[in-house]
Specification:
With 238 residues, the chain is an alpha/beta fold. It has helices at 17-28, 46-58, 105-120, 142-154, 157-161, 177-186, 211-223, and strands spanning 8-12, 32-39, 62-67, 124-126, 167-169. The protein has a single domain, classed as HUPs (Rossmann fold), CATH 3.40.50. The protein is built from 7 helices and 5 strands, in the order βαβαβαβααβαα.
């Protein structure tokens, strides 16, 4: 990708494997990076500290943690008092969208990112969406991201005035988790700083059995890279 010197980009950073890899790729592409993290009432709030760690390690122009409370709506095991499914992925039960899907989350996150882009006069947004080796979330698909990019052109001052074209970058969209881990490793991401678990212990130890943990464990195994994750049960470690 050719980047104009000093071009700004807003990168969504959750503190997980995918967003950390995307952050590193945006920096590698030469963007001046503005990292955006959300404290949205998620039960796996340890990812906020992970986001701060990874942003500090990779380096950005500015890091904003936006506080919104999606618990007012609930509807997800991540924002409501619902049980987080365990060992679901091992059973290949991906026929339906899981209860860990947070309604309209990426739509909300990208809208915030677009608003910040308008203020910064930035026209590039990076997101770690993945449609291949994921849990079946509808807002992690090419169709969704393509439509949001079209929306950005008619929903912003710069877009309506024809001064610029907004771009949604999802470089991991068609990669397996193993390929994402290899890509991040090559880009210098320290995965020991990241957090993926949906249902961690109070100390931040990963459960090892939720969808996100199982994807992460399998990804490191298939990538042939040691998994640095701290699990609650050492027998669950990769």
């Amino acid at each position: 990708m050719t980047t104009s010197p000093g071009a700004k980009a807003v990168v969504l950073v959750s503190g997980g494997v995918d967003s950390s890899t995307v952050l590193a790729l945006a920096k590698k592409d030469g963007f001046e990076v503005y990292a955006l993290t959300f404290d949205y009432g998620q039960r796996h709030h340890h990812e906020l500290a992970a986001a701060q760690r990874i942003v500090s390690a990779i380096g950005v122009k500015q890091h904003v943690i936006a506080k919104i409370d999606l618990r007012v709506f609930g509807g997800s095991a991540l924002t409501d008092d619902l049980e987080v499914p365990k060992r679901r992925f091992a059973a290949a039960s991906q026929a339906e969208i899981p209860i860990t899907y947070v309604p309209a989350r990426n739509t909300i996150f990208l809208s915030f990112a677009l608003g910040w882009c308008e203020v910064l006069q930035a026209y590039d947004i990076f997101i770690g969406a993945n449609a291949i080796d994921y849990s079946g979330y509808p807002d992690c698909r090419h169709e969704f991201l393509e439509q949001f990019e079209r929306l950005a052109q008619v929903a912003t001052k710069a877009g309506v005035e024809g001064r610029s074209h907004y771009r949604i970058h999802a470089p991991l969209l068609s990669l397996s988790k193993a390929d994402i881990i290899r890509t991040g490793h090559e880009a210098g991401v320290d995965f020991a700083l990241t957090h993926s678990c949906y249902d961690p212990s109070p100390e931040g130890l990963a459960c090892g059995a939720c969808d996100s943990c199982e994807l992460r464990r399998r990804g490191f195994l298939e990538a042939g890279i040691p998994d640095p994750t701290r699990y609650q049960d050492l027998n669950n470690g990769a």
